[in-house]
Amino acid sequence: xxxxxxxxxxxxxxxxxxxxxxxxxxxxxxxxxxxxxxxxxxxxxxxxxxxxxxxxxxxxxxxxxxxxxxxxxxxxxxxxxxxxxxxxxxxxxxxxxxxxxxxxxxxxxxxxxxx
Length: 115
Description:
mainly alpha
């Protein structure tokens, strides 16, 4: 949903918001966002009710974000993540299912109340 080619003056909030809205509207069950640090798109996506976006610097981050927090958007660092590593992180994010333990569901419910 974003740019196909790097443009120095792109504004990440535009793309972060587009992806987050598409995930919330169930157009997609999960989203992937990339910006320089990964932080900007993560902050933007988390402004949309129903989104739980997490920054993943490694495979473990992606795994835990999905398994424990039912994260629906993963954010990557474009400046610091190689294409090879990004593919591995994304694969882990997509193949990991939420583990609906009572404490995980309770915590997600608490987050939803804050929205």
